[in-house]
Amino acid sequence: MSPATFQQVHERLVDAFYQSTSLKQKANREWLLKISYVEYFWSNIAKVSLPDMARAGDQAMLAKAGRVENEISLDWPSVYTNIDIIVNQETPSHRDVTSTPTLLDSLVSLGSHNAKFLIPDLGAELAYSPGTMIFLSGKILQHSVPKWEKGERIALVHYMKDKVHDRLKVTRPAWTTQKDILGLAVRYT
């Protein structure tokens, strides 16, 4: 689902924004509304953990206002420009080619499964239990979720498309550092 996905119009050289087809479906809009309180929660985690990245996401959402063709109005609950839902699917090893390295993906594991999250570039095998949230530079690190033994796996994958930021002229952030996060803690106390 995406409130404003960048795509090139067939044979014209004009760039336009469109809502994803799935977001136009009433059932999907209703589902997004029902989970919006949780999406706000995950966005707030991103705002604390990755403040510059979250700010870039908020700026993209503000910049796209009124620029999406045939947009169905809804309050987008995430700092991320896109949300994908993966249900009971293995995720083959891959890198995400549509984003900048500093626009970290947020992966939220739900369900009743016992899956593992693999990052071969680091030789890492992480427990990917329901309730797990992972921030990952999917552009840099190859990652996968292979077959698991039991249970249902649901993953909410949050990410930002680099071309959306390009088109909206929103600057991508530098890497978040510990100093950035500690600076936020001081401002909020």
UniProtKB/TrEMBL annotation:
GO molecular-function terms, A-Z: dioxygenase activity; metal ion binding
Gene3D superfamilies on file: 3.60.130.30
UniProt KW keywords: Dioxygenase, Iron, Metal-binding, Oxidoreductase
Cofactor(s) for this UniProt protein: Fe(2+)
Signal peptide (residue range): none
Domain 2OGFeDO JBP1/TET oxygenase: 67-161
Statement: the UniProt record of this protein carries the keyword Ligase: no
Keyword presence, Metal-binding: yes
Domain of life: Eukaryota
Annotated protein name in UniProt: 2OGFeDO JBP1/TET oxygenase domain-containing protein
